[in-house]
Amino acid sequence: MEVPGRGPRAEAPWKQLSAEELENQYCPSRWVIRRGAEETLKMYSHLGDKATKKARATRKSLLHVPYGDGDGEKLDIYFPGEVAAEALPFCLFLHGGYWQSGSKDMSAFMVDPLTARGVAVVVVAYGIAPKGTLDQMVDQVTRSVVFMQKKYPCNEGLYLCGHSAGAHLAAMMLLANWTKHGVTPNLKGFFLVSGIYDLEPIVHTTQNAPLLLTPEDARRNSPQLLLEAALTRPSGPACHVLVTVGQHDSPEFHRQSREFFQTLRRGEWDASFEEIRDVDHFEIIWSLTQQDSVLTQVGHSLSPGECGSHRRGGRWGAEGIFGFQGAGVLMVGTENPLASATSPPERAPRDLQSAPGHTGGSCLGLGVDGAGHRSGTRKVFACE
Ligand SMILES: Nc1ccccc1C(=O)C[C@H](N)C(=O)O
What we know:
By secondary structure, the protein is of the alpha/beta class. The protein has helices spanning 19-25, 37-58, 111-115, 134-151, 165-172, 200-203, 208-211, 215-220, 223-229, 251-266, 283-286, 294-301; strands at 61-66, 74-78, 90-94, 120-124, 158-163, 187-193, 240-246, 271-276, 331-333, 377-379. Residues 27-29, 41, 44, 96-98, 101-102, 164 line the site of (2S)-2-amino-4-(2-aminophenyl)-4-oxobutanoic acid (KYN).
């Protein structure tokens, strides 16, 4: 597939935005469609709490397992069966919250649907700002992966899933230097949900107040820039990378995901891109709590992705990213189970041009580009 792109770094589009519009673009709660910003953030905590309580009450688990000596370097493991088995696929989940909010104790979103399918879920804590720095968070996540590989050497694959800031941290693992840690983790898939891959714009928003990122810190921690700069594909894992973004994420979040995917493809990574219909930045992760969610069905459709079997193009395999026996025909439901009776207006911001600047806590009334289809199913291909 020919992947269109900007080629060597052109002037970044976000640099043309006013300070106010940049702030808007990087404030996901201002783009929500069915509830107010505040209500959304409350519901996000509530649903995360609820999913975690349920997971802890219903699943065999190992809680607060230290993966390092540092404060808060802990993870929770939820098993699909009665025993803490080892020969399982493990999905490591990294929560969102702009590297400054959220915790593992309210982020067991994926436990229900994945354990039901025989996948162990590991919710990883990392030291958020202002106490922790981005460099430390990346190092912690690296060490959590190393820890899991060493604790479960017979695992049937480690899969990294991250939401928002967590997708950034997961993406940084594509560039990790595992030799330094004396182990090659059995990484089989990356599942990046509404992430940020170029941190430079963040430096110019109020989100940076607790992060205190300098432009240099931002560049050093931007997988987008690091992969663009790499002349050849880093010798990272040869498994599948799925980049997803919510239809109602902001145009900048769409641009970030699309460009990261394009950069991966240019670097010959086995990557695919999926815009999830009818969900905003928060609903996209709530949908992971649903057994029949769009995303778990996307999970179904990914290639078995044995590391080393570097697939280029073609249709998805019949087995899921988590080793499920999936259907051969890969249909992704585009119905959002969380959509309430109040349907949002047809709106699919795809680029900055189609999104007139807006302020405040709502994006209602934004430009309509007519591209939103809200129902039905469609086939998903590894490359389109
Ligand atoms: N709590 C979150 C959880 C996940 C992802 C983002 C957030 C945010 O709070 C982002 C930002 N503070 C916002 O108001 O949109």
